[in-house]
Known about the structure:
Layout: H1 3-28, H2 38-58, H3 65-81, H4 92-113, H5 120-135, H6 142-145, H7 155-163, H8 175-196, H9 203-217, H10 230-248, H11 255-272, H12 277-295, H13 300-324, H14 344-359, H15 375-385, H16 387-406, H17 413-431, H18 439-457, H19 462-482, E1 504-508, E2 514-518, E3 539-541, E4 550-552, E5 574-575, E6 582-583, E7 592-594, E8 597-604, E9 608-619, E10 624-631, E11 634-642, E12 647-653, E13 656-666, E14 679-691
Antiparallel strand pairs: 1-2, 3-4, 5-8, 6-7, 7-14, 8-13, 9-12, 9-14, 10-11, 10-13
Helix pairs in contact: 1-2, 1-3, 1-4, 2-7, 2-11, 2-13, 4-8, 5-7, 8-9, 8-10, 9-10, 9-18, 9-19, 10-11, 10-12, 10-17, 10-18, 11-12, 11-13, 12-17, 16-18, 17-18
Amino acid sequence: MPPTASVCILWAWAFLSLAGIGRAGRRAIGLRANRPDLILYDFWIGFVLTLGLLQLWNFFLPVDDRAAMLVTVIAAVGWTVTRGETSAPTTVLERLLLAIAIAIVAWWTARWSLGPIRNYDTGLYHLPMVRWIQEYALVPGLANLHGRLGFNSSSYLYTALLDAVPLGVRGARHANGLLLAVLLAHSLFAAIAIAKSRSGPRAADLFMLFLLGALLSQPTGNALSGMSNDFASIALALILARTFWEQIDAGNAQSELTGFVVILVAAAGIVVKQSLGILAATTVLASLLHAYWQRGRVPRSTIAGLAVALFIGALWIGRGVVLTGYPLFPTMALPVDTDWQTPPYVVLNTRYWIESWARAPGLHWIDVLENTKWLGPWFSRVSLDLQTEAASTLAGAALLAGIAVTWQRPPWNYGLFLLPTLSALVAWFVTAPDPRFATGQILTLQSGLWSMALACACAKRPRPLAIAATAAAVLLVGAFAARHSHIAPPPVASWRQVIPRPEYVQRRARGGLQVFQPTSGDQCWDTPLPCTPYFRPDLATRRGDLQSGFTLELAPACADWCESATVKPPLDIGAFDCFHHWRTPQLSGAIRAMGDIGHIGLHTPTPTHAALRLRPLSIEGADTASLEIVLNSRSLGSYWLRNGVETTIPLPLGPNFNSIELRLRAEKPAGATKQGVGVEYDVFEIVAAKAVG
């Protein structure tokens, strides 16, 4: 069977299964509706309910073909009990045209999903996480093996489910493509609604139409490629906005259905991507307030939605505790005392890398989080990456302002619609301002402003301006498409690309646990489990088998790449990065070679007295050198170093992470022209730690 056909069949199974579960869930709380795009909303309801089901399932069993069979059976029941409902256009011609359009969308998206995986993190931890879910029930302390395996995203459960369907394709590769196809279907239904409208287009329909260009450009980026949860978060953010827009739209007869969907999609947004928390919470709050203002009470369906959302959230928090010992990893809030709890300095190291990489990719977090020097380069980079989106957003805002002043004042609910998005963008900038973490919010703001402007313009002369609005949306689609030179799907030659399995070595921890480590780079890809790019000698299983989980018997010397470092802190101090700004040792792995600047990152939960003990083996071009020690941006003074002479430098460490900068100044002989300074140490360690007080 051709690969494209296999992918489309897989998607047909997944779509019908999730929509069937959604129909069953909707009918269970007494929600009935009759609208052409009802099946799309059933899909999203089923998507959320399936995430909850798989979370519960994975506590006890791996997500394999048995889970796929269970989903199929529940979906069949859902379709059976709702067989009397209609959810399609009324005329035969409309159904035929819609079926052709959806077939084209599915074929185009499937072709793109068969292309190369360009998302780096898929090889780093996405695929390994999916494989753990497929082969084992939820494993305690998985973050001790590899910190990024502690990222608790339920999208990997959905991805593993698609991979369990035996159709000759790796379903995990195509999980995001189905979500894109459903979003495009929403835009098709919106276009039909605008074309048939006699009273002017609704803002919610215009919103989806203005998103069409951005959706068509998604396959050329990295979010859709591979198994990243970034695109799932984008899709959920856009559907959340679309559904909320429908709920608050004046005269919307389906506000009870849309209010229910808003709550479920918000819950899915949190369990798929923790960074959507502010957007989800503010949207739910605004939805509840609007429902109360509109009806004077909160509908029973909304209360049912809140109960389901809280149950799914509780399962998600439980998964986080099992994976890491923290409910909201990589934050340290509300830690749970378990024998598999991830060490605090590993948690903080992971969190700081996320925050710093979002500000200044490629730089160590020690150089980024302590200052605001990243702001200028960040603004230049983001301005370049988002120049089209920024220009379109400003144009939409200007058009809305002009129409509001000269023609039609916008309804008050427009501000209510923008409130969650603006709140989320503020939180995004403060925490981790990488554009990929806010793509959904940025597109919501852009398309929301345009849809508001044209909805206002159509309010007085609906029919002619509805046609103009549709034409403007088509032009905007062309503007987005022109930004990318490869809208056409990849060639046939790329169809049979396989997921790599890099060369690896076997490493044995002190307790006898055998792990696999890539020989180069940090991507495990399809390497046998357990695989980690960060070997920790003190890693062990809790009860002798992988299913029992992982624990760290002793504190590791470093959080990531530092297993061979000579910086060996005491057990109550963890090192973040012993190699930062350090040279490759020239004599042997036991020698620490330092340039004119070196960094050490240390962590201690409480204020602690420690000391840095070092003995130079050689100093470039000199017998002596001056070494200034700067602890947390505060100078501790300078010390003279001599070859073969041991020096001890006190370190009054504060709680949490400590940044130690070593600034070397060598005394060069007269007439020396050699540039650069360096020193090699045969003793370099942290010693004599004790708590203050």
